[in-house]
Amino acid sequence: MNQNTTIAVAMSGGVDSSAAAAILAREGNDSGVSRNTVVGLTLQLWDQTRLAGKHGIPDTPRAGRCCSLDDVYDARRVAEQLGIPYYVVNQEERFERDVVRPFVDEYLAGRTPIPCSHCNNHIKFDQLLRTARSIGAERIATGHYAVNEFDPARGRWILKRPADLAKDQTYFLFGLTQEQLARTLFPLGHMTKPEVREAARRHELALAEKPDSQEICFVPGGDYKQFLTAYLEEQGEAMPESAGELVAASGEVIGQHAGIHNFTVGQRKGLGVAGRHQVGAPFYVLNIDPASHRVTVGADAEVASRTLRARQLNWISIAELNDAMRVRVKIRHRHEPAWATLEPVADDEVLATFDEPQRAVTPGQAAVFFDGDEVVGGGWIV
């Protein structure tokens, strides 16, 4: 990196991205450059008041949600404090097309989506890099907790888990391409969250104590069912008819349900039936069949799976998978990666066979493959 490097920092208005901007603007980076030309960019993605008051959605936005107008204000305030240029880029139309609408469609099809991964893949990194080029920035930086290094021996950029494993965000970043990784910095990758807050205090940032966002930015209160109903109504669309039978693993019909969008694999509450396996034993969702609208339920022990298939693959530490490979597989953000054998079974499809059965392997979620701290790649569970 040369002495005239311009870096566009994605500023969400939270402490992590603000600390990343401050570190790059005032302390330099691990290349040894003492100062950079830093520009702050915020992507305006969703109008937080758009569905307010409909179908139980709060009338006013709640605290703790990212990408709100308050966050834009906080990001601008930090940029002014750091003395760096700052721009807001409106991406609401594309965000709705590439993140919100697929989120709705996935639930209606009986799958469980991850909007944060889709946002990273289709909006944040892709659009940030495009915008960065337009303002003359060679690279972008974000406040994600991840490590990004180039391995000359393999000729590839390698994504690694961060120092603070409790804040590890590599699960949401598995879709980044080599081109995107080559132009991306993660200044917080070797820091813990307490160290990041201390850096924010050291630079006297006003939001050093701001709580982390906890919700999907466009789903108020975390109730996706309310959101689906309100969004479809706004679009002038009826909720698709997907009511059907609740069945036991044996095939016995034990009840009825109002629609497959109300369920996700591993779900226990809100099934509308009592456990029948033994006294006090609850049912869990084992499978959702979008064709027949059948939702299969069973005992907790029946939720576990020995295998999964994943498609729409992206490889990071390797160019492609040609032979069986031992990896650890992470099947949701808070899941501890589990040992498995990964095998190619078709074009753009792999089979992971776990050493031990894993609970609630959920279609629509990501399966991310690790070799030590390195992200080998990942794909979408089918």
Describe the overall structure.
The chain is of the alpha/beta class. It has three domains: about 180 residues, HUPs (Rossmann fold); about 55 residues, SH3 type barrels (Roll), CATH 2.30.30.280; about 80 residues, Translation factors (Elongation Factor Tu (Ef-tu), domain 3, Beta Barrel), CATH 2.40.30.10. Helix content is about 25%, strand content about 30%. It contains seven helices and 17 strands. The strands form four sheets. The chain has a six-stranded antiparallel barrel with strand order 12-15-14-13-16-17. It is globular and about 70 Å long. It starts with 5 loop residues before the first strand and ends with a strand.
The whole-number mean of residue pLDDT values reads 90
From the N-terminal CA to the C-terminal CA, the straight-line distance is 41 Å
What CATH architecture of the largest domain do you see?
Answer: 3-Layer(aba) Sandwich
Relative helix content: 10-25%
SSE inventory with pairings:
Elements (H helix, E strand, L loop, with lengths): L5 E5 L4 H12 L10 E8 L24 H14 L3 E5 L1 H17 L6 H20 L4 E3 L5 E5 L4 E5 L17 H5 L1 E2 L7 H10 L21 H11 L9 E5 L4 E5 L26 E6 L4 E5 L5 E12 L9 E6 L7 E9 L2 E11 L6 E6 L2 E8 L1
Parallel strand pairs: 1-2, 1-4, 2-3, 4-7, 8-11
Antiparallel strand pairs: 5-6, 8-9, 10-11, 12-15, 12-17, 13-14, 13-16, 14-15, 16-17
Helix pairs in contact: 1-2, 1-6, 3-4
